[in-house]
Request: fold
Amino acid sequence: MTDPTWPPDTPRLITLPSGRTLRGRGLRDPMPAGPLPEFGLYLYGRPPTLDWPNTWVRWPDFWLPSDRVAFRRAIREVLQRCGAQRVEVACGGGMGRTGTTLACLAVLDGVPNDDAVAFVREHYHPHAVEMPWQRRFVRRFR
Reply:
């Protein structure tokens, strides 16, 4: 059995208000040292090939998810799993799509929609949620 928590020195960790922790990253970056994820959500144009359980949502770079129903289902699974497993959310660069997803997760975890982008920029990365339509998507997310 593995320890379901990320080591505290894991890069790009974000802790949601409920205390659930997950990792964001860019798939173009090298895999960080340390334990592998136990589950991942990947936001990309095509599904990545990985050695752990994962869900893929088609999401073109700089845009919004192609299937919003699949996106909502996927992030609800992430929210459930990140309380007990090492979970990561990743896109190509780890900022726009990943940041948008982390902001939507923050909304589901109790952060008001209008504050979610600022929450992710403060607790994950200052450049997260890159595009104006991604910020609008978070503000309207339910």
User: Anything to note?
Assistant: The two ends are 35 Å apart (CA to CA).
